[in-house]
Design the sequence.
């Protein structure tokens, strides 16, 4: 396998550089590898400012190129300043040719001609400015051609690019300095520079140098389109993806060649950005919906290859095919099938645990790490499913406040060891009032789990035999470098695989418990994330809506660890069992209403309905109050039964409900294409309430004729259009004190019924539903389908889904209906015929 130059380079440089800069610079310069790149970087420090100045005076400047060039200049200066250190990890980085116009890049001329041309320089200081100017225009021309080819607006042959770069290299030779002196020395627009080249083409002494450059500029300026049969003049100009922000890598798939294989490693990253405006996103966040549900409306793929060429030598079409295949593989991988080949077998786990148990009595070192210390490190990594950085920062706590870090080990005299875990925080940190905080489930910042007996024996022996010391009783367990433990673990696994067989690696071992916790019955991915603190793509959205009982996590974690230890036959110690007294403590979402809060809300709304029904005949204002109270009650019931997001039109239309099956369609975060619409099952109480509300509206029409004739005709008028078919106008409304019908916006929902003791958002029902359905044992797949939480490949009833609509309905009927009954929701009427 070729050396991953870019990864090695990022480790040497003192400042972290975004991988995007690697990729964009390699594409712009067409770098075959980093051999002798120190000289190219020094040239780019002069060439790139010229590129910026040329673009700034162009009629249509490329603002993205101007901005990126600033980053590239800074990046090249870093490489030049640290070229000696880079040459130690990338031999040949500072390699020099026999002179400044003969590059030591044999074999790169044909496939990476620009990278070779930018290496060259002239020996004459008087001509240096002209030559750097020529290199700048050459770079811009090839940059424009690449973008035009990606849009299929032109086709430039590889020979044309090669010939243009070849003459640029030749002009650096001393025998051609008189010809180089004929080229412009002032910065012009790219069109003016092209015209200057055309004027020089008539001179025989320089014609053979000018003609290849002119042909290249013809393509760059779209004077020559080439043979592109599928290209159309009306081809739309795509939006610049990298200008849209925020840009985020959502998923990735990496293929690494086996040990000894000389193939090239590949990584495909799926990048997404915010698909809605900042104003809309702010409103959705204010409604307690996670931004993760709305920021992936546009996605792009990025293919990166290790070795000499980040593109892997593939054409744009071949790269696109690779990314499509990777997207399909990611879709299948997201489903976490039971036949996942990355998951270790029980034999492999047993061999690993017995292997690290034997390390406690061994005197052998692995990669310079004593056997007992390595055993402690691997035990922490396995039993907490931590990545290597998290396990490395673990401290041994005996007193004092909890230090920074998501994992520590608590050792109190006479008590069993405990993990102190700081669970991940949901991505949206919402500030809530003190009144609202009293109505949600109480959360704690730290999760306490008992250390499994296998790990406890190893850690106690390691602690007793080593000179661990630190301030305030908080010494670090592991004081070597992260790389040392990686090398030691790699050497240990190599020996283990040779002795016992299997596919044990540090990555697979550290992921085993995370996968086991996410697969166990009654658990889901959010519970696994709470223990492992891993950024799992399948848990980004569910984490925002889920509060997990500390008692339940301790119960599941203890059961899993006991089963693993029994199956592996490793020694254990007597455990005290799951601690009591923490049934009311939760971790995760801080926006989940307590059950008593919802019960009190339902009772208050029903009481107000009873009062309003009794007083409706007294006056028109009392009638308006009945209508408004019934509207709010209906909306809150629908939100509690379906998890509807807080939108301005949450009630279903007749065309959106199949009364034979109870299924309905929801489109609450969608566009006109209905791409993100989902199917829900409506409990009988929800359908009955919608029927009561519809009957109430029909009876209200007769009263409106005498109250407000304009509103009367508005209610009677029906329109076909909008996002749903047979859209009735309005599906619901509320009446103000002047008897005017206004659309019901979320921000004024609570004001309709006066002051009630409920200080949470309507979307809090989504948090309540997911937390309580999971707690009662409802299938995770059903819950995610019901709330619209799925990732690529997990769409319910999609290509890779095995979810049956009947099983989906039966599962919801089993858990959702009793939940609504316990909360006190019942179908309530408004106006009746008598």
Sequence:
């Amino acid at each position: 396998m070729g050396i991953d130059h870019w990864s090695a380079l990022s480790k040497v440089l003192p400042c972290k550089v975004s991988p995007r800069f690697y990729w964009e610079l390699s594409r712009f310069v067409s770098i075959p590898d980093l051999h002798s790149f120190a000289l190219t970087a020094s040239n780019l420090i002069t060439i790139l400012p010229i590129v910026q100045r040329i673009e700034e005076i162009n009629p249509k400047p490329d603002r993205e190129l101007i901005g990126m060039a600033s980053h590239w200049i800074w990046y090249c200066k870093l490489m030049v300043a640290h070229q000696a250190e880079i040459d130690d990890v990338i031999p040949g980085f500072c390699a020099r040719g026999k002179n400044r116009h003969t590059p030591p890049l044999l074999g790169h001329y044909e496939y990476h001609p620009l990278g070779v041309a930018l290496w060259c320089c002239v020996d004459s200081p008087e001509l240096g400015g002209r030559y750097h100017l020529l290199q700048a225009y050459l770079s811009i021309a090839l940059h424009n051609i690449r973008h035009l080819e990606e849009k299929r607006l032109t086709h430039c042959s590889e020979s044309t690019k090669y010939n243009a770069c070849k003459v640029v290299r030749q002009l650096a030779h001393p025998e051609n300095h008189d010809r180089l002196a004929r080229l412009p020395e002032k910065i012009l627009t790219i069109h003016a520079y092209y015209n200057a080249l055309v004027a020089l083409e008539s001179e025989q002494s320089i014609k053979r140098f000018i003609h290849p450059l002119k042909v290249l500029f013809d393509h760059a300026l779209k004077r020559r389109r080439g043979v592109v049969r599928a290209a159309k003049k009306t081809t739309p100009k795509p939006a610049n993806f990298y200008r849209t922000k925020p840009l985020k890598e959502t998923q990735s798939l990496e293929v690494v060649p086996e040990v000894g294989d000389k193939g090239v490693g590949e990584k495909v990253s799926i990048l997404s950005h915010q698909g809605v405006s900042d104003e809309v996103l702010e409103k959705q966040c204010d409604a307690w919906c996670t931004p993760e549900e709305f920021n992936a409306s546009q996605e792009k793929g990025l293919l990166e290859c290790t070795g000499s060429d980040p593109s892997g030598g593939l054409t744009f079409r071949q790269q696109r095919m690779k990314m499509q295949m990777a997207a399909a593989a990611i879709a299948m991988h997201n489903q976490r099938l039971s036949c996942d080949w990355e998951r270790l077998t029980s034999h492999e786990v047993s061999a690993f645990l017995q292997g690290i148990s034997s390390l406690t009595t061994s005197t052998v070192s692995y990669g310079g790490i004593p056997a007992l210390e390595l055993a402690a490190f691997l035990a922490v990594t396995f039993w907490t499913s931590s990545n290597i950085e998290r396990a490395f920062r673990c401290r041994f706590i005996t007193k004092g406040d909890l230090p920074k870090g998501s994992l520590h080990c608590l050792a109190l005299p006479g008590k069993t060891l405990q993990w102190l875990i700081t669970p991940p925080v949901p991505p949206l940190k919402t500030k809530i009032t003190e009144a609202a905080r009293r109505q949600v489930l109480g959360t704690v910042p730290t999760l306490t789990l008992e250390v499994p007996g296998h790990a406890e024996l190893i850690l106690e022996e390691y602690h007793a035999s080593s000179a661990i010391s630190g301030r305030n009783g908080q010494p670090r367990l592991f004081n070597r470098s992260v790389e040392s433990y990686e090398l030691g673990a790699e050497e240990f696994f190599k020996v283990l695989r040779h002795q016992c067989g299997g596919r044990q690696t540090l990555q697979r071992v550290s992921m085993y418990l995370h996968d086991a916790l996410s697969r166990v019955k009654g658990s889901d991915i959010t519970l696994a994330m709470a223990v492992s603190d891993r950024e799992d793509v399948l848990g980004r959205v569910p984490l925002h809506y889920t509060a997990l009982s500390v008692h339940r996590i301790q119960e599941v974690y203890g059961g899993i660890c006991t089963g693993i230890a029994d199956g592996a036959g490793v020694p254990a110690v007597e455990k005290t069992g799951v601690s009591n007294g923490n049934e009311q403590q939760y971790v995760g979402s801080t926006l989940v209403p307590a059950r008593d809060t919802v019960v009190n809300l339902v009772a208050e709304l029903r009481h107000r309905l009873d009062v309003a029904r009794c007083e409706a005949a007294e006056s028109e204002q009392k009638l308006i109050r009945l209508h408004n109270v019934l509207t709010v009650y209906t909306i809150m019931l629908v939100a509690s039964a379906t998890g509807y997001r807080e939108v301005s039109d949450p009630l279903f239309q007749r065309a959106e409900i199949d009364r034979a099956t109870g299924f309905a369609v929801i489109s609450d975060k969608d566009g006109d294409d209905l791409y993100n619409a989902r199917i829900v099952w409506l409990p009988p109480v929800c359908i009955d309430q919608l029927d009561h509300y519809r009957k109430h509206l029909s009876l209200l029409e007769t009263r409106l004729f005498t109250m407000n004739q304009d509103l009367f005709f508005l209610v009677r008028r029906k329109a076909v259009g909008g996002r749903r078919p047979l859209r009735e106008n309005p599906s619901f409304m509320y009446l103000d004190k002047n008897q005017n019908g206004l659309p019901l916006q979320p921000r004024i929902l609570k004001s309709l019924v006066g002051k009630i003791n409920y200080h949470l958002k309507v979307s809090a029902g989504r948090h309540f539903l997911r937390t309580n359905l999971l707690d009662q044992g409802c299938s995770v797949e059903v819950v995610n389908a019901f709330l619209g939480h799925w990732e690529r490949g997990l769409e319910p009833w999609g290509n890779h889904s095995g979810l049956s609509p009947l099983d989906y309905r039966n599962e919801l009927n089993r858990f959702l209906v009793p939940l609504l009954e316990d909360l006190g929701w019942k179908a309530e009427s408004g106006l009746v015929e008598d």
User: Anything to note?
Assistant: The two ends are 84 Å apart (CA to CA). Confidence is low (pLDDT under 50) at residues 225-244, 716-732. The longest strand covers residues 247-255.
